[in-house]
Amino acid sequence: MKKLTRSNIEALPNKPIKIVQFGEGNFLRAFADWVVDIMNERIGFNAGVAVVQPIETGLVELLQRQDGLYHHLMMGMSSGERIRKFRLISCIQHTVNPFQDKHAFWELAAGDDLEIVISNTTEAGIVFDESDLPKKGVLAHTFPGKLTQFLVHRFDHFDGDPTKGVIFLPCELIDRNGDKLKQAILDYCHLWRLSRAFVHWIENYNYFGNTLVDRIVPGYPRNEIDDLVNEIGFEDKLLVSSEVFHLWVIEGDKELQKRFPADSAGLNVKFVDDQMPYRTRKVRILNGIHTSMVSIGLNTELETVKKSIEHPLFGAFYKKLIKEEILPTIDLTEDERNSFASEVIERFQNPFIRHELSSISLNSISKFKVRGLPIILDYIGRFRKAPPKLSLVFAGLIHLYISQAASRKLKDNPGYIEFFTKIADRENHVFETLKNGDLWGSDLTQNKVLFSEVQQQYSQIQSIGIGKAIEQMLK
Questions:
Q1: Total structural domains in the chain?
Q2: Rounded to two decimals, what is the model's pTM?
Q3: Which tens digit of pLDDT belongs to each residue from 224-246?
């Protein structure tokens, strides 16, 4: 089997590094890089991507071995038509592991062609940490801290040139991700006592776009990989699969649209004044159910999204959860809510992709804080009672972390794992978890309605198991 390298592929011209991408995981490679690759082909965007590994362990070494190349497999249904299509993604020109080569990291910051920074460091990535203090020659440990260092180097290299500001398109699934990334950088400017000139440059010559991204990306199709590599004729350790559907909503004006003209390439990229309605609908329905499936599925040994939505008991639970507890909290017309919900359920049943719950489970605490908790609080505010099904999901997540934290099977913030390991032998699991403001941003035990319902559902799960608890709830 041939190695997937540029020397084994017909001539692939080099492109200027217009984009620096923080993150090399499945989603960005099946979404953002796929978008850029199509723009290069269809409208001559001529953008090379340099990928920066944002944490110490990652896939940059694999990308280097394959010269930044990998295949994307798109599978699904569109307007009743079966689609199954491979694409060789070639826009990644350069990779950097800043933990091993800081000089290469600074060289990217000084790139003359750099225009755009894209990131996906998960919901836990855009944070400010007051203990993240600058030390000469040492990388900051948070992503915004590293990015601040990156921008300081760029500012100094170009002597504050206003034309060398950057467009930031963060893909982290948090509310107003662009605003929060900018604020974290400004917080570091204050903490590190950076110059007023640099702060002025950040605020006036760099653009931080609030965005929403939507595509189901199961990732590496390990169960079918032997057949797939035989089909493409190359060994590909980074082959990534996704559904057909994609959506990228970006808050920005005509100038931003001109500089990143993805819509001109026939892609489902929307430039809008306010992405919030799109975000609320997507995060609460699609991502909210994904996170619910992790809570329930990993407690019952279900492995995939498709099996979960088609399960006779749990599938009925998720559909009722959407209809009775999520849709009533979304301020769109009934048709807009119902049509998107139906579309999401159909996407979950995609017969061509295997979306494993284990791949969705990364950083589930932070994900529930963003995807599930706001629905619960909104529901309580509207109806003066807690949503029982979402409360059961919350209780199921606590049960999952209590039961599996010690085994280290869950992938999450080490501090979170340590917390659940410590409280596992105690009695008041729900109280201690909800009281931990580091997890949720506030002491949730103060919300008596929420605390009471989650405690009740947790007791049910411990007494009869999550399957029986759901069965009784649906009677």
A1: 2
A2: 0.77
A3: 899 999 999 999 999 999 999 99
